[in-house]
Design brief:
The complex is a heterodimer of chains A (168) and B (213). Chain A is mainly alpha-helical and 168 residues long. Chain A has five helices and two strands. Among the domains of chain A are: 4-50, no CATH class; 126-168, no CATH class. A two-stranded antiparallel ribbon of chain A has the order 1-2. Chain A starts with a helix and ends in a 13-residue tail after the last strand. Chain B has 213 residues and is mainly alpha-helical. Chain B folds into two domains: 25-112, RNA polymerase sigma factor, region 2, helix turn helix motif (Rna Polymerase Sigma Factor, Chain: A, Orthogonal Bundle); 145-212, Winged helix-like DNA-binding domain superfamily/Winged helix DNA-binding domain (Arc Repressor Mutant, subunit A). Chain B has helices spanning 25-33, 37-59, 62-78, 89-112, 145-157, 161-172, 177-184, 188-212. Chain B starts with 24 loop residues before the first helix and ends with a helix. The interface between A and B is large, with 47 and 64 residues.
Chain lengths: 168, 213
């Protein structure tokens, strides 16, 4: 069962109905002043509604202006959307150019200079070792760069067979 | 704190929005949710007077009412994406404004050490007992509107935040018990009990007023 205060408030505001109202009105027989109390409460409500004390909002436009400034100050500025694809075309071009430069610099600094200037050979073969079949014969080779010729010098030969000839 | 003080002081109706025509509230809310501050500005224009009056009825101070209305609207803007349209925009806004105001009243109560003793003047009043008329004023004396408002201001200021909220919501804003309970986050029984004691105290303080007009 609701306390008296709750039922009394509901009764004043006309919210009690049916059996609840009948039951409460029985209780009110013990409170002869209740009718006056209800009347007072209704008069009070009427007084409060008839005399609203709130003043009008002065400087209403300034109210909005001030509020909008506060909103602007507290609203984070939108962040520029960044491309999710890192290797965009300009980036690729720049990266390619950079790689070429790095390769060139490495080539110039790391690889020894002599190796870069290999002379073209004027001959296709060079005799570096020779040995005759006859132990009495010694063989040596001489290369003449000016003449662009290799000479095979054989000592101890009795004769050179007619069928043996060197072709230049 | 704003540099310009609100100008006094005509009373305003509290039932209708300031601007009746124009886009629907829900359209403006949808645009606000998309980040359109001009749409929110329009909503502020519509409800600023009601909001201010409602808060003033609670705090009884123009500067405080201005600042709290600002805080309430700012909070509404920050939470606008949580509005799902299950109630009217004003009902939703009203709850935010009321929470901001009640929090402020409670803070002031704690910081200032103010005690709202709702039992003052009620200790000898049993439920159902007749209220005693205030003795200072002769029954035949007429009271001006200004005096009446001042007396009402003073009387409401003597209520605790909870009792003040309940009586303002019920008698001035015309809310139903369930709405008050929802707004205040308490049971229906608590609402009715608060209304009972708030009325009792105001009847003690204002009986001579409503008996003489």
């Amino acid at each position: 069962m609701k306390p008296f205060e709750e039922q009394f408030t509901a009764w004043v505001d006309g919210k009690l109905t049916g059996a609840e109202l009948a039951e409460f009105e029985k209780q009110l027989a013990e409170h002869p002043e209740a009718a006056t109390e209800k009347e007072d409460a209704l008069k009070l409500g009427k007084l409060l509604r008839a005399h609203p004390t709130a003043p009008a909002l002065g400087n209403a436009d300034f109210f909005n202006h001030q509020l909008m400034q506060r909103i602007a100050a507290e609203t984070p500025k939108p962040v520029e959307k960044k491309s999710t694809f890192f290797w965009s075309l300009p980036r690729l071009a720049w990266a390619g150019a950079f790689c070429l430069v790095i390769t060139f610099v490495l080539f110039e600094t790391i690889i020894p200079g002599g190796a870069k200037h290999i002379d073209k050979s004027n001959y296709f073969a060079q005799v570096v070792e020779s040995w005759p079949g006859n132990p009495n014969v010694s063989a040596s080779t001489v290369y003449s760069a000016d003449d662009n010729v290799t000479v095979v010098w054989l000592d101890g030969l009795d004769y050179i067979p007619a069928t043996y000839a060197l072709n230049k | 704190m704003n540099e310009l003080r609100p100008t006094p002081s005509n009373t305003v109706p509290t039932e209708t929005p300031d601007v009746a025509a124009g886009p629907d509230d829900l359209d403006l809310v949808a645009r606000s949710q998309a980040g359109d501050t001009s749409a929110f500005n329009e909503l502020v224009t519509r409800y600023r007077n009601r909001a201010y009056a409602m808060i003033y009825n609670m705090v009884r101070n123009e500067q405080d009412a201005w600042d709290l209305a600002q805080d309430g609207f700012l909070k509404a803007w920050k939470s606008i994406n949580r509005f799902r349209g299950q109630s009217s925009f004003y009902t939703w806004l009203y709850r935010i404004l009321m929470n901001v105001t009640i929090d402020s009243l409670r803070r002031k109560q704690i910081e200032g050490g103010t005690e709202f003793d709702d039992q003052i003047g009620l200790h000898n009043i049993a439920p159902g007992a007749a209220t005693a008329p205030k003795s200072e004023m002769a029954p035949a004396e007429r009271i001006s509107d200004k005096e009446i408002r001042q007396r009402i201001d003073e009387a409401i200021a003597k209520l605790s935040p909870e009792h003040r909220t309940a009586i303002v919501m019920r008698e001035i804003d015309g809310l139903e018990y369930t709405e008050i309970a929802e707004q205040m986050g308490c049971s229906l029984g608590t609402v009715m009990s608060r209304l009972f004691y708030a009325r009792k105290k105001l009847q003690v303080l204002l009986k001579d007023v409503y008996e003489t007009i």
